Amino acid sequence: MFCLILIISFFFFISPIFGQTSCIKTYSNLAINGNDIHGVQGSSSSCCQYCQQIRGCQAYTWNTFNGGTCWLKNDTQPLYNSTGEYTGILSPGANNTYSLLKSYDASNWFNNETFVFNSFHYTDHKNGFVNYVDYETAKSEGLVGVQNGKVYMGMDNTTILPPNSTIGRNAIRINTLIRFNSGLFIFDIDHMPTGPGLWPAFWTEGPKWPSNGEIDMLEGISEQNFNQITLHTGENCAMTANDSRYFTGKWNYGYGNNTNSGCDVLAPNGTFNTGFNQASGGVFVLEWDREKFIRIWNFVRPNIPEDIAKASPNPNPSTWGMPTAYYTLGPNCTPDHFNNNTIIINSDLCGVAGTAFQGGELVCEDVARNHPEEYSDAYWLINSLKVYCKPNTPCPN
Ligand SMILES: *[C@@H]1O[C@H](CO)[C@@H](O)[C@H](O)[C@H]1NC(C)=O
Ligand SMILES: *[C@@H]1O[C@H](CO)[C@@H](O)[C@H](O)[C@H]1NC(C)=O
Ligand SMILES: *[C@@H]1O[C@H](CO)[C@@H](O)[C@H](O)[C@H]1NC(C)=O
Ligand SMILES: *[C@@H]1O[C@H](CO)[C@@H](O)[C@H](O)[C@H]1NC(C)=O
Ligand SMILES: *[C@@H]1O[C@H](CO)[C@@H](O)[C@H](O)[C@H]1NC(C)=O
Ligand SMILES: *[C@@H]1O[C@H](CO)[C@@H](O)[C@H](O)[C@H]1NC(C)=O
Ligand SMILES: *[C@@H]1O[C@H](CO)[C@@H](O)[C@H](O)[C@H]1NC(C)=O
Ligand SMILES: *[C@@H]1O[C@H](CO)[C@@H](O)[C@H](O)[C@H]1NC(C)=O
Ligand SMILES: *[C@@H]1O[C@H](CO)[C@@H](O)[C@H](O)[C@H]1NC(C)=O
Ligand SMILES: *[C@@H]1O[C@H](CO)[C@@H](O)[C@H](O)[C@H]1NC(C)=O
């Protein structure tokens, strides 16, 4: 009888009571800040089982407190460096699992049900020396198409512009028809535009800029070999010093120093420009949890997380480690700073990129006008842009 009770209690103890969770990822020397349900004394190898028994437990961090303590967590983030601590992630419950909302790829990219081609040019060249063309023009000039199952979007590389032209080089700017309020966005590309004075970007923007936000996941100018991640918002959105513990990029504190920007994070060398293309590209990811955070990862091939590389139907950002950039949403930046964002992909020329160009904006425009052959690498080669949502979240709406 004693033996039976022992066996029953033993099974009770180890069986996951709340759903079929398992521990899918462990990290050494990383801890999750806050989000404690409570602490349980034990060895690091026992933490997963403790977590499985507690409703709402999604992860744990173990440290040597009180001879060894499993800190059971109701969230899988934010991660920060902490020598000697271990963190384990449980498989997400249904409410925390991402599934595919929309895949943008060669099969639908140009079918007018996915993207709008923006057709305009800037009258003030500080915004760039380009002429964004509509789909029909882009197609007839060979600026867009499908190559080996990948989406190609280039820039005019044959026309010498008239010396007096105030309108810049033909280029592409598109935005999604769908507007988003949260979600997981995975942009997988083999090649990004490069060339003199280029200023390519993959970003989001809400209406009435900047009051509904802008998230720049991929942006830079031709002199850079690293990606520059930035938010632009309305007033009362601050990035706090503590956030810098939660990402691997370099906080370019005070960059721009104007009223709507300053949350600028630099990714490592190789995440932008020719070095990135020579590596056959990579993946840029935005995870926008409307209540908690915006986090961004830059992955360069071959270092792509397995679930992304294998096109898992349920990619799990909690298994990808510390992000390249992390922004807390909460009291210092309320979630309503970001609403109804479309996703934009464009290649600009000169303007902001001209100010950093050797010789300045006018030399940049001179090259842009007279040297079309310089823009043969000014193209995107895109595998896909996939958007995933969690259940019961305002992903598109
Ligand atoms: C998670 O735990 C923290 C306390 O550590 C609490 O403030 C928060 O509300 C909890 N979140 C959820 C979703 O239970
Ligand atoms: C999932 O979310 C729904 C709606 O918010 C809620 O009713 C349900 O209790 C949640 N399930 C779990 C396991 O948390
Ligand atoms: C796409 O093109 C078709 C045919 O020209 C048109 O009927 C439809 O309204 C267009 N859809 C959008 C979203 O522009
Ligand atoms: C540029 O010069 C040409 C030839 O003189 C003229 O036809 C054209 O209108 C001018 N364009 C502009 C924008 O001034
Ligand atoms: C910010 O970091 C400091 C020290 O690293 C810590 O004491 C403080 O609790 C942190 N604040 C928050 C809100 O996490
Ligand atoms: C965390 O530690 C790693 C490895 O020691 C280091 O490369 C990285 O810069 C650290 N990150 C932060 C945010 O301190
Ligand atoms: C930003 O502007 C403020 C107010 O003008 C000034 O005090 C601060 O030094 C500036 N910071 C940088 C990095 O330029
Ligand atoms: C990044 O690249 C620049 C330019 O090539 C170089 O000067 C710098 O040392 C590199 N930084 C790192 C951390 O490798
Ligand atoms: C976002 O778009 C929806 C649908 O058009 C609209 O009802 C809502 O008011 C918009 N939100 C903001 C903050 O503009
Ligand atoms: C224009 O660029 C495309 C794409 O790189 C290239 O195939 C083509 O040869 C270039 N055309 C000229 C005239 O350089």
UniProtKB/TrEMBL annotation:
Lineage of source species: Eukaryota, Metazoa, Ecdysozoa, Nematoda, Chromadorea
Domain GH16: 84-336
A single BP term in Gene Ontology: proteolysis
Protein name: GH16 domain-containing protein
SMART domains listed in its UniProt record: APPLE (SM00223)
A GO CC term attached to the entry: extracellular region
Signal peptide positions on this chain: 1-19
Superkingdom assignment: Eukaryota
Gene Ontology molecular-function annotations: hydrolase activity, hydrolyzing O-glycosyl compounds
